[in-house]
Structures
1.
Amino acid sequence: MNLLKHLSVIAMSAMMALAATGCSDKDNEAPQPDPADKTALQAELRTAGSLLDGAAEGNAPGQYPATAIAAFTAAIADAQAINDKDDATQQAVDKAVVDLKAAANTFRAAVIPTPTIDRSALQAALTDARGKVEGAVAGNEPGQYPADAITAFQTAIDAAQAVYDKTDATQAEIDGAVAPLTAAQATFLEAVIPSPTVDPALSLYLPFNGNAEDASSYGHAVSLNPGETGQPEPSLTADRMGAPDQAYRFEGGFMKIPYDATLNPSTMSVMFWMRMPALTATDTAPLSLGWWDCYMAKIIGGAQNDFAFVAGGASVMSGSTVEPDRWYHVAVTRSESSLDIYIDGELKNTQEAAAPMNQSTEPLRIGVLSENPGYYYPYFGDLDEIRIYSKVLSADEIKALYDTEKP
């Protein structure tokens, strides 16, 4: 067998052996890895895309800086590149998921924040204001408020409340609503009807507002008593304005106030409103303390029908004629030198009074001269707004009181 034939035989034998073993070159190649699982990466890409699509570029609250948008866009592109790579390893895909999540968190943190609005100061001001207006009573009495003041304050409260309730209010708007409300409250509180200032020289004040209590700072006790022969005690009646139960009617009964030095000053002013439904033939005494020895007010009866006052030995008459069923304002001042009488705010007469005022321990009686039998000289009529001062009021002060109280 020549060499060529020998080689062919060898080759043939090799091929037969190879066929018998079932082996090939392909079977000798390295095994291929499984494709990477990109499910989590694709889900993260969808979330990131939605987040980016909903983002607005800018510097206003809720917007994102341009640099943050650019960085997040680049991070999404890097993750997308891994997702698009057919031969990407699982390790590379997992890393892309982690990186994209971190980029998304960084992007969310870059949003321009909505400022936190502090409403506490305005809330406190509103609470205080509502308490003030809810406790206010409309009216003209001391401690009350004019109706228009309450309305104006409520309007200011409503305006401040509207700012407080505004969901998109800025801190400047909230803060700016406090000062006007505070100013409106101050204006409101200044509008309260003031309590009348009690003059320390006002020794006795009987306004007869539904009772016979002394409204001066001394608070003298006042008792109501029947008359000498059982006439009724003084009773409430209408005043010169027609208001019911704002004056007292005297029909023989009287009021009595225990003696106190404040009712027996060395200089004084006495004033009251009076009305007699009918005139009397005899003298009557609207009030008296120690009668002739100290001071007393009298209505001269009979044909004269005049106002008179006696104080410390001096006496004065007005020279006016009392008319029935008419209200009069009577005022008398007793200084160290004179005794003056005023009717309806006008000076009517002056008498010299050089002697000092007498002192007495008698009670002050209103509606009679005394309680001595036969010397009651009861007053029949209405009385109101009785005042006794331990000082001499000026003519202007007397006129001002008359003008304030006249019907």
2.
Amino acid sequence: MCPHSYERVMEYESSYNSLGNMDKHMYMKFTLALMLALASVVALSKPYTMDNTDSVVLEDKETNRKYEVFIRIPEGYDQAKKYPVVYLTDAWYRFPIVAAAVQIPILTKSMESFIVVGISKDVNEDRDDARVRDFTPTTPTGWKKKSGEADTYHSFVSGVLFDYIDRSYSTDPKNRTYVGGSLGGLWGAYVLFKYPETFNNYILASPALWFDNHFIFGLEKQFIEKARNSSINVYLSVGELEVIKSKDFEINMVKDAERLYDVLNNKQIGGLRVKNVVVDSANHDVSFPTSSIMGLFWLFGGGS
């Protein structure tokens, strides 16, 4: 029972001795009922949990890193059915947003049912340090944080993680989607360019394409050769206000997304479908929820 509950009971007890025997009997019954009611209220207070979710820690034997993974299965999950799987990074933030936002569209059948898998950081590491290391493909000159392990992270995701999810749930291995934002969007673009077969669909929200002097665009020719006969869907999205200017540099994520769209819209890649969307009045801090849910609606619903 919380301290305020005890205080209310003590207020009643302070006047107890001034009552007659009959009044005392009624008073005691009332006090007992009050205490039971307050105890019931306190007992109902428990941490919020999302329905149909699991969590697991998976170890990457090559690096000895232990990644926490969150999984949400759709309402009415049927083991006899094969489900698409949506994988997303930065799960500490993005998993609750995506897993919650898709519930109503799936229930109303506005969107196809799928499993959501959120990959969080190594359980023993700082969140920001881990994501900079895992999501970046290079180490820029003068860069102080550890970086450049995008390939190592890809090996974990495409190996250990895919294997666990496909063994543990009823999945369609031919229908995998990636959702990533900011540096996670950069990692998604890197995987698309270097390992395009990893996912069938890519939702790249505000991708940090500026990293290392736009290194990602140096992979354009390699990507065109690898993806020439691929059937891939790419949803690009960035906030209208995602432009940072200073005396020393300028980051214009809107123009960077347009540049990536032009690369992906190359006629030499016959099986690639791409869409680029600018979220009105949104900056880098708030664009992801809209980008992710609209991207998923484009892929799994009636979005055009």
